[in-house]
């Protein structure tokens, strides 16, 4: 398990994919090139290769699936930015702002189809299972995204509902990435499932951290609009806890900001963060994160792999969750 090598290899393979895009229609392919060349952290394909590498030396078996999963992730971002009305992604204008929403929808659709083509190049003995896992995961992501949107207009969201929403929109994909990688590497189904569990908890902690960074991160590093979730009335872990804990004037003010139609963006973000701070929601969010990180590490312990490999997974998980972008 050599994470640094996996990262380099994925970067190399994605450059190859970009090089093979046709020149026309330009409004279909230029947005895809724009999206993939400024690639982001590429966590999911590295997890796929790690899942394979734990069981086999031949990580090439998992390269197509890893690439397919990363393309799928980028497709979800193209559509997510329209849904969230987000101006910035990876420090640059989002595709639907730089071009337009129709272009972001269609280039996203093509990217999704391309992702399936890649995953379909997985080893024949496990192909049917992998395609089913991949497509079912895609459906779950849609379910999570719909809940995320529904919650914007729902005044009360219970913590359990929130956790289920982030499990679907975010956690199932890293989980599937690890499991599919393991299947490509010839793992027993039970072992592959343990990796899925590891990935699920990593994914939960990852989305909790994403919520935290949206509000408290350094926008320059995160590459997204600061406070974008607050502006969209997202029921993030921070907002949920604030709605639960705020009383009196704070609660009234928070509800006023949520229902306000006309406001200065900066002013809303700053005022809501003040309320978050007064309710000490950040510490509690970090407790949620640590809880899932611990559960992820527990899943590793049950795997029948060498202590060195367990340590490698442990270190990578630590890196993922102690991120600033
Ligand atoms: C962003 O994912 C969307 C979430 C599920 C939180 P990443 O933070 O992995 O995005 P990139 O690919 O590195 O930009
Ligand atoms: C991402 O949730 C989930 C998916 C894209 C499926 P967010 O909306 O929080 O992701 P970011 O913060 O825009 O990257
Ligand atoms: Mg978003
Ligand atoms: Mg979203
Ligand atoms: Mg987010």
Can you lay out the helices and strands and say which pair or pack?
Blueprint: H1 3-19, H2 26-37, H3 43-53, H4 63-83, E1 88-89, E2 92-93, H5 95-98, H6 101-119, H7 124-152, H8 159-184, H9 189-216, H10 219-222, H11 228-231, H12 237-245, H13 248-259, H14 265-278, H15 281-301, H16 307-321
Antiparallel strand pairs: 1-2
Helix pairs in contact: 1-3, 2-6, 3-4, 3-8, 4-6, 4-7, 4-8, 7-8, 8-9, 9-15, 12-15, 15-16
Short summary:
The protein has helices at residues 3-19, 26-37, 43-53, 63-83, 95-98, 101-119, 124-152, 159-184, 189-216, 219-222, 228-231, 237-245, 248-259, 265-278, 281-301, 307-321; strands spanning 88-89, 92-93. The chain has 325 residues and is an all-alpha fold. A two-stranded antiparallel sheet has the order 1-2.
């Amino acid at each position: 398990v050599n994470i640094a090598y996996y990262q380099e290899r994925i970067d190399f393979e994605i450059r190859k994919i970009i090089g093979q895009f046709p020149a026309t229609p330009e409004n279909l392919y230029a947005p895809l090139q724009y999206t993939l060349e400024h690639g982001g952290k590429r966590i999911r394909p590295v997890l796929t290769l790690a899942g394979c590498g734990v069981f086999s030396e031949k990580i090439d078996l998992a390269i197509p699936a890893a690439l397919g999963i990363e393309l799928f992730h980028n497709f979800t971002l193209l559509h997510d930015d329209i849904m969230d009305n987000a101006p910035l992604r990876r420090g640059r204008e989002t595709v639907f702002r730089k071009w337009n929403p129709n272009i972001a929808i269609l280039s996203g659709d093509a990217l999704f189809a391309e992702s399936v083509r890649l995953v379909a190049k997985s080893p024949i003995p496990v192909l049917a299972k992998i395609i089913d896992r991949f497509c079912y995961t895609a459906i779950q992501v849609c379910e999570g995204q719909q809940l995320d949107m529904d919650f914007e207009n729902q005044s009360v969201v219970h913590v359990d509902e929130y956790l289920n929403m982030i499990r679907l929109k975010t956690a199932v994909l890293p989980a599937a990435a690890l499991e599919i990688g393991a299947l490509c590497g010839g793992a027993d189904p039970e072992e592959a499932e343990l990796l899925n569990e590891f990935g699920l908890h990593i994914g939960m902690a990852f989305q909790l951290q994403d919520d935290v960074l949206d509000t408290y991160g350094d926008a320059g590093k995160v590459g997204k609009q600061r406070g974008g979730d607050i502006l969209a009335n997202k029921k993030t872990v921070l907002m949920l806890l604030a709605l639960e804990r705020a009383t009196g004037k704070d609660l009234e003010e928070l509800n006023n900001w949520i229902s306000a139609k006309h406001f200065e963006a900066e002013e809303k973000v700053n005022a809501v963060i003040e309320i978050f701070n007064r309710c000490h929601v950040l510490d509690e969010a970090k407790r949620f994160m640590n809880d899932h990180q611990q559960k992820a590490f527990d899943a590793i312990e049950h795997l029948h792999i060498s202590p060195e490999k367990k340590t490698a997974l442990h270190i990578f998980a630590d890196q993922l969750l102690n991120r600033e972008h």
